[in-house]
Amino acid sequence: xxxxxxxxxxxxxxxxxxxxxxxxxxxxxxxxxxxxxxxxxxxxxxxxxxxxxxxxxxxxxxxxxxxxxxxxxxxxxxxxxxxxxxxxxxxxxxxxxxxxxxxxxxxxxxxxxxxxxxxxxxxxxxxxxxxxxxxxxxxxxxxxxxxxxxxxxxxxxxxxxxxxxxxxxxxxxxxxxxxxxxxxxxxxxxxxxxxxxxxxxxxxxxxxxxxxxxxxxxxxxxxxxxxxxxxxxxxxxxxxxxxxxxxxxxxxxxxxxxxxxxxxxxxxxxxxxxxxxxxxxxxxxxxxxxxxxxxxxxxxxxxxxxxxxxxxxxxxxxxxxxxxxxxxxxxxxxxxxxxxxxxxxxxxxxxxxxxxxxxxxxxxxxxxxx
Length: 370
Description:
Largest sheet: 4 strands, antiparallel
Structural class: alpha+beta
Mean pLDDT: 87
Low-confidence stretches: none
Radius of gyration: 20 Å
Oligomer: single chain
Order of helices and strands: EEHHEEHHHHEEEEHHHHHHHHHH
Helix content: 40-55%
CATH class of the largest domain: Alpha Beta
Number of helices: 16
CATH superfamily of the largest domain: Aminoglycoside phosphotransferase (APH), C-terminal lobe
Strand content: 5-15%
Number of strands: 8
C-alpha cells in the first residue's frame, strides 16, 4: 500500500540522515483502495495529531495527504532496531514487549473515539457503512466463496494441517455476515459487554510492524487505524505472530499481562476497569473478535494471487497453520454460532462455557479470590 525509500542526505550544516520516505503506491488498485477508505490519510493524521504522545512512533518530519490518494511522509530511520521475522515468529520476550507497547494507545482513546478532537473527524468507525456493509462484505463474499479452490490450487492442502477449520470458519462468516454486522448496530461505543474496551485499533498489529531496540518498542504502519474493540489488536498479534508451540506456552501469560495492564493504566486514567472490564469479559471478547482476524486473514490470502513470490507463499502457509490451530484451540465455530444466534443475550455463565477449559478454570479461580 505504499512505496518506501531510504534517503541518505548530505548537508552543509548538521541534519538528519538517513530518512525513510513513504509515498503513494504506483499500482492503480491499491492507490484507489487507499484513497476511498482514507487509509493514507489515516496514517498522516496519526502522525500530525501526535498519537506519539501515547506510543512510540518514528519521528515524523513531514506528512501530508490529498483526497486523490497522493500522500508523503518523511520519517526517522529506526536502524539499527529491527523487527522480528513474521515467518519465524516472535520470541517470548518480543511478544511481551509488543503486548505492553499497545496498551497506552488503547487506554488513551478508550470510549473517546467519537469525542476526542484528535481523532473523531477522520478515524474510521466500526459501523462505517461503506467499509463494513459494502466493501468488506463484497470482498469477503468473493474470497470466501473461492477460498477452498484457491488453497487447492496453491497446493496448501499438502502443507497445512487443520485447513478444513479455516474453510469452515470462512463459510460461517459468509453465511452469518449480516448477523455479524448487526452486532455493530446494537453495540454501544463507550462501555458495556463486548464494547467494554472500544478504542483505537492499530489494524495490522503484527510483529513485523514493531521495531525492537533493547527495551524500546516502536510501532509503525498506521494505515489500518480504526475504531474498534481493543482485543482485536491482541487477538491478531497472538494468533499470527507466534508459533503454535510458543503460543500454547505463553498465551495465558500474555493475556493476563494485557488485561492487568489495561486495568492498571485504565484506573490511573480514571476508568473503573475492574468493574467494567472483568477478566471473563476480556477473554470472551478475545475469543469473539477472532472473527475480525479471520476476515483480515481471508482478505490477505488474496494477495498471494497477485504476488506469488516465495516469501509471500511461505508467509501464507505459516499464517494458515498458526490461525487454524488458533481456531481449534479457541472453539471458534461453536462460539460464533452461539453468539450470533443470541447477540447480547447470553449470560456470563453461558459465554464462559464457550471458552477453552483452562480459561474457564482461570475465571473460576479469580471468582473464588474475589
